[in-house]
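assembly run, all chains below
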Amino acid sequence: MLAKRLVSIANAFRALKDHDLEEVASTRLLVYAATLIKDGCEPTLACRAALVETLTDDPETAVALREVIDATFGL
Amino acid sequence: MEEYVGELWHKLVTRVADKQRAEAAVCLAEISKTAAIFFRALGGDAGLNLAAAPSTRHGARRSWKNKLASSGERIQLSWRDGETLRLPENIDLFSERSLNRDLYLWLVALSAADVDDSLPWIVRNQTATLGNIPALSRPIFTIL
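ok done. output:
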């Protein structure tokens, strides 16, 4: 279930390539997020740290990416 | 004098009739970038522009206060065509700002999905949101 959610987030972020993000979520970043979660980090926090913070430094884009993560994890 | 009293009356009756929650209102301009990215992330057409929806006459029954103030005849609906996604210019339906913001995102999620037009509107609504993004159901749908 967790893996499916991470893949869903990655697919959503990949839809933003060339429009809002220069780079999209790589498999390596997803593994980092999964590793953080496995080590006890709260899933949305792990995704923010491993994905959002590494993909953009634009505040509004970051907010939108966090909304995608929250919607995926049901927050 | 007559004009002055008329203006005062109009302001008073309009304020009573329209349940505006200015402090909780969220306007499209402040959420447009987030909404556009959210729309594209959920699979919406990346070529669409985001713009405010024009007011349209809804034709539904109005309260006696609205009739007295001659207000509440028009509403801004969310819809999209081949070029533009249109959302209300501002939302002040709820007394909490976060809920009005969530409603914007809900409308965006609704617009991002490609659902069979022949289905009843409520089924289309649920398929586009709860069907495509099941996790939306727990927090936003329950609260809204």
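Helices of chain B lie at 2-17, 28-41, 64-69, 97-112, 121-131, 137-143.

The two ends of chain B are 46 Å apart (CA to CA).

not gonna interpret more than that til we talk
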